[in-house]
Amino acid sequence: MTEIKSKSSILLSIFRRKGGEGVLTKIINEDNKLNFSNQVALIKADEQPLLCFKKDELNWLFITSDRIIESEESIILSIPYCELVEVSLAIQEEFRDRVMNKENFTRLVLKASNGQRYVLKLEKGKPYQGIYQMLHHVVTKGGDNH
């Protein structure tokens, strides 16, 4: 259990140091856990909830100690860290939508070991920066080897 807690504290430390919470992105703790009960219900026994960007009950991004879970219009996608090989800014998508200032970016591209490409939507500003740095750490550490 301490390995999970250690991994979680490292990831949350990166999130806080490189970015931080926003209006819709919150670190999950005992005080606010009820606000994220539908997301927390998805965690596995050996997993810890870390943070959630929640627009509404159909559209959210939930980050745990082991994976990223996204819901877009109730379609749920789960990406284990061990499958991540790359995380990058979704520059093509942002520029296509005429978002030119990095401070206003809201999307990241994740590439999985099977070649699949995922575009995640995040809250702009500090939450975006913090989540990007967290996931970059996961990829550079090889998913499981924190």
Topology:
Elements: H1 2-18, E1 25-27, H2 37-40, E2 49-54, E3 60-64, E4 67-72, E5 75-80, E6 84-89, H3 91-96, E7 107-112, E8 117-121, H4 126-140
Strand count: 8
The CATH class assignment is Mainly Beta
Query: Given the helix and strand composition, which structural class is it?
Result: alpha+beta
Strand content: 25-35%
| Second-tier CATH architecture | Roll
**Mean pLDDT value:** 93
* The CATH homology group name: Pleckstrin-homology domain (PH domain)/Phosphotyrosine-binding domain (PTB)
Topology as H/E string?
Answer: HEHEEEEEHEEH
The number of domains = 1
What characterizes the major β-sheet?
5 strands, antiparallel
Helix proportion = 25-40%
Report the end-to-end length measured between terminal Cα atoms: 14 Å
The CATH topology assignment is: PH-domain like
How would the global form be characterised?
Answer: globular
Radius of gyration: 14 Å
Low-pLDDT regions: none
Organism: Pedobacter steynii
Protein name: PH domain-containing protein
Protein described:
The chain is of the alpha+beta class. It has a single domain (2-140), classed as PH-domain like. The chain is 29% helix and 29% strand. The chain contains 4 helices and 8 strands; from the N terminus they run αβαβββββαββα. The strands form 2 sheets. A 5-stranded antiparallel β-sheet has the order 1-2-3-4-5, covered by helices on one side. A 3-stranded antiparallel β-sheet has the order 6-7-8. Helix 1 crosses helix 4. The radius of gyration is 14 Å and the shape is globular. The protein starts with a helix and ends in a 6-residue tail after the last helix. The model has no long low-confidence stretch (mean pLDDT 93).
